[in-house]
Design goal:
Chain B: GO terms for molecular function: flavin adenine dinucleotide binding; oxidoreductase activity, acting on the CH-CH group of donors. Chain B: It holds the Pfam family Acyl-CoA_dh_N. Chain B: Belongs to the acyl-CoA dehydrogenase family. Chain B: This is Acyl-CoA dehydrogenase FadE17. Chain B: Keywords: FAD, Flavoprotein, Oxidoreductase. The structure holds two protein chains of two kinds. Chain A is α+β, with helices and mostly antiparallel strands. Chain A contains eleven helices and ten strands. In chain A, the strands form three sheets. A four-stranded mixed sheet of chain A has the order 1-4-5-8. Chain A has a four-stranded antiparallel sheet with strand order 2-3-7-6, with no helix packed on it. In chain A, helix 4 runs parallel beside helix 7. The two termini of chain A are 40 Å apart. The model of chain A has no long low-confidence stretch (mean pLDDT 96). By secondary structure, chain B is an alpha+beta fold. Chain B has 14 helices and eight strands. Chain B has a four-stranded mixed sheet. In chain B, helix 1 runs parallel beside helix 10 and helix 6 crosses helix 8. Chain B is globular, with a radius of gyration of 22 Å. The chains are: A alpha+beta, B alpha+beta. Bound molecules: flavin-adenine dinucleotide. Flavin-adenine dinucleotide (FAD) sits at the interface of chains B and A.
Chain lengths: 371, 413
């Protein structure tokens, strides 16, 4: 076997093992009643999070010297898929994806300072890569220099896991319009955090307001490239979550259609529903392929933008569609609070809008196609 | 604005004078302008159940005083006694003014009133129609846990004992049952007859011993629906609507109620909602200036504009048929599916256009389905139309089999 083939096999095996561990752990510890309890503010969520950290989920991307797994986005995507399946109300976006990813890109002292703490579950670092409306590329934050310090002002909306974060990497525009990524500790003077509760009760988003926040010049850990990669990592994470969620919705729906009888037959025997289930599967299959590819291509030169744009638009929209179909095919019960279907639908609709919606990503593709 | 084409055509059929109809419109419009509180949405945003129900009662009272409540019910029962053309105009004017919809009493005013008019005895009509017009709340006890789309397979049993019936069973999805004093109940009176033959429609007094109501919470967070448990509930034979074992036919009449002027009003209201969607899209365009996404958004809106207009035109044709022959053509089933799905697309586009902001939890107006002022809540509420009262799938089967004459699916009676 060639080295490359051996590495590929190793990667596949690692991912399979990760998936198995994650699935059985979440099936056991993150059942729907637990999800609802944590979403409603139950403190037991902290205990679950500690277990997740012990499993190493916040350290998937970090190199071994920082206590991480030294793996990559394909492995992280597997975990995110499983979290999506389980509707896990965990700060994975911030703590496992955005913060560690951006710090790895930054390298240097910031990475050395924060990564080991993130891996050990002692700190959460998230990233605010967009403006007040949460759309990547539109920034409402400015950074200037004053007496040897950097000064930040402005707002960023819908920042994932910000209420739990110790620091946030903020995308801000400098005096000449250049984009900077600046690490700001959430306890710093002038930082205000305001919850932005959304229909999806399994995620926590907040609005970040910066008023004359002063940081050392070393807090500037990157520029436009870091910001764009961070937003893309977020988009990929949501896409992976969608693959997991959509897969679970399809399973639940198929189970319902197999067992629920009307007109003396199982619902699933009606072709009108069968074809739609087949269509759900077509879209899911496409979403899965797109996400797998984007995770693998993320760091290959010139491939990231197209791969992420395809994955985000395909997977997030597939999830929303599949969850909507799931609700409809459950009939009246799909419309009730007690049934999980609405939790999936709400998470899917939020995922569609987070880190740029389908149109946003198709516009990026459009620019590449006609470049 | 002149009378809509349909009201003119209807007036010709009904021998009405177009000028008189114009006068009616002017009359209605002036009343609406004076009586619809401009700030009712703001006041009802975030309102609790009690407050909302009280407001509904207040608005119903206003309509009654104005003579605009239940325009389809004859005057002698306290209704508007309006001609079809007048009803159309009233629906249009209320919709265009963004007047509150009657939701809590809609089963009473539309389903129960129409069923009583079509199948009730003189005594039942005299007892219930004036009460309904005075604000009696009704619910509909058709569906059961095991019988939804396949309504005819319902299991609730009404056993005859002398001149009484003893009812046992469970109903589900009954809208506003918590507030209802009466229920249109379907129960099986002849378990040996073919599925559709042995069913009887009853008027159930919800305060009778043995009636238990349990609210269900829906995905929007509200408690509009309930389960009803019936244990040895005794009903007199005078509570039968129509004939014994003829309940299926009676129920079909009840269900078709929502495919008349009622649906025109819904469509007109959807067109008003479309105006709100247009404003939301317009607000997004500057940020998308010149991008392909801008073009796609404009196309989506234009497409929905055309769809809602077409819906309106189909509805006019249906009303035309009603005016001419007193019965609706195939348009009524078409409208049921198209309305539900167009509505869903409107809510979807509104949610998309709103971006992350549309995902935020915020206080909304309850009870009016797709006019809550929150696109995401409206989207979550669409099963009221895509599932309730005959799902889109069932309606498609109906169109394929009864309108297009295709053979039945094997096994599906
Ligand atoms: C908002 C709302 C309000 C309601 N209000 C009332 C009320 O006031 N009173 C009352 O009695 N009931 C009410 N209902 C109940 C409603 O009538 C039923 O939910 C509906 O008939 C569907 O039944 P079900 O929920 O059992 O779904 P099921 O019949 O189990 O259907 C599940 C899915 O399978 C599909 N399906 C079923 N059969 C077929 C087939 N042959 N071919 C293809 N697809 C099929 C359905 O379309 C649906 O998507 C309400 C429902 C809703 C959602």
């Amino acid at each position: 076997m060639s080295d490359a083939a051996a590495t590929a096999t190793e990667g596949r095996e690692l991912r399979a093992a990760l998936r198995e561990t994650a699935r059985s752990f979440l099936a056991d510890r993150c059942r729907p009643d637990v999800v609802r309890a944590i979403a409603a503010g139950d403190r037991d969520g902290d205990a679950l999070w500690r277990e997740v950290v012990e499993l190493g989920w916040t350290g998937v991307q970090a190199p071994e010297e920082h206590g991480g797994l030294g793996a990559g986005l394909p492995e992280l995507a597997v975990l995110l898929e499983e979290c999506g399946r389980a509707l896990a109300p965990l700060p994975m976006l911030g703590a496992a994806v955005l913060g560690p990813g951006a710090l790895l890109d930054a390298g240097g002292p910031a990475a050395a300072e924060w990564l080991p703490r993130i891996v050990a579950g002692q700190a959460i670092v998230t990233a605010a890569m967009a403006g007040a409306d949460g759309v990547p590329g539109r920034l409402d934050t400015r950074v200037g220099a004053e007496g040897g310090r950097l000064v930040l002002d402005g707002v960023a909306g819908f920042v994932a896991d910000l209420p739990a974060a110790d620091a946030v990497i903020v995308a801000a525009r400098g005096g000449r319009g250049e984009v900077a990524a600046v690490l700001v500790e959430t306890g710093a003077a002038g930082v205000a955090i305001e919850d932005q509760p959304v229909h999806d009760c399994t995620r926590r988003l907040a609005r970040l307001t910066l008023r004359g926040v002063e940081v050392a010049p070393a807090a500037r850990i990157g520029g436009a490239e870091l910001v764009e990669r961070a937003a893309d990592r977020g988009a990929l994470a949501v896409a992976a979550d969608g693959v997991g969620g959509a897969g679970r919705v399809l399973e639940i729906t198929l189970e319902h259609l197999r067992t629920r009888e009307q007109f003396g037959r199982p619902l699933g025997s009606f072709q009108a529903l069968k074809h739609r289930c087949a269509d759900m599967f077509l879209r899911l299959t496409g979403a899965r392929a797109a996400v797998e590819h984007a995770a693998a291509a993320f760091d290959r030169p010139g491939e990231r933008v197209a791969a992420v744009a395809i994955a985000k638009s395909t997977a997030a929209e597939a999830y929303a569609h599949i969850a909507g179909e799931g609700v409809q095919m459950h009939g009246g019960i799909g419309f009730t609070w007690e049934h999980d279907m609405h939790l999936f639908l709400k998470r899917a609709k939020l995922g569609e809008a987070l880190f740029g919606d389908g149109d946003h990503h198709r516009d990026r593709l459009d620019r590449l196609i006609f470049a | 604005m002149t009378a809509s084409p349909v009201s003119l055509r209807l007036s010709a059929e009904g021998g009405e004078d177009p000028a008189e109809l114009e006068a009616w419109r002017t009359h209605v419009r002036a009343w609406v302008a004076e009586n619809v509180p401009a700030d009712w949405r703001a006041r009802m945003t975030g309102a609790g159940d009690e407050e909302y129900v009280a407001f509904q009662r207040w608005w119903m009272g206003r309509l009654r005083e104005g003579g605009y409540l239940a325009p389809h019910v004859p005057k002698r029962w306290g209704g508007g006694g309006c001609t079809l053309a007048q009803q159309v105009i009233l629906a249009e004017e209320l919709a265009h003014a963004g007047a509150p919809q009657l939701t809590v009493t809609s089963t009473a005013l539309y389903h129960a009133a129409s069923t009583l008019l079509a199948a009730g005895t003189d005594e039942q009509q005299a007892r219930h129609l004036p009460a309904i017009l005075a604000g009696e709340i009704w619910t509909q006890g058709f569906s059961e846990p095991g019988a939804g789309s396949d309504l005819a397979s319902l299991q609730t049993r009404a056993r005859r004992e002398g001149d009484r019936y003893v009812v046992n069973g469970q109903k589900i999805w009954s809208s506003y049952a918590t507030y209802a004093t009466h229920c249109l109940l379907l129960a099986r009176t002849d378990p040996d007859a073919p599925k559709r033959r042995g069913i009887t429609c009853f008027i159930l007094d919800m305060t009778l011993p043995g009636v238990q109501i349990v609210p269900i919470r829906q995905s929007t967070g509200e408690h509009e629906f309930c389960e009803i448990f019936l244990t040895d509930v005794e009903l007199g034979a005078d509570r039968i609507l129509g004939a014994e074992n003829d309940g299926w036919r009676v129920a079909q009449g009840t269900l078709s109620t929502e495919r008349s002027v009622f649906v025109l009003e819904q469509i007109e209201r959807l067109c008003v909602t479309r105006g709100r969607l247009t404003a939301d899209v317009a607000a997004q365009l500057p940020a998308l200036n010149g991008t392909p996404a801008e073009g796609r958004l404009r196309q989506s809106l234009a497409r929905l504009y055309a769809e809602t207009e077409v819906l309106r035109l189909i509805c006019y044709r249906m009303l035309d048929d009603l005016g001419r022959h007193g019965g609706a053509g195939p348009e009524s089933s078409v409208i049921k599916v198209m309305f539900a799905e167009t509505l869903k697309r409107v809510d979807e586009l509104g949610t998309t256009v709103g971006g992350l902001d549309a995902q935020r939890l915020r206080p909304h107006t309850q009870g009016v389905n797709w006019e809550s002022g929150d696109w995401m809540v409206d989207l979550l509420a669409t099963p009221a139309w895509t599932v309730g009262g005959g799902s889109s799938e069932i309606m498609r089967n109906v169109i394929a089999e009864r309108v297009l004459g295709l053979p039945r699916e094997p096994g599906a009676a």
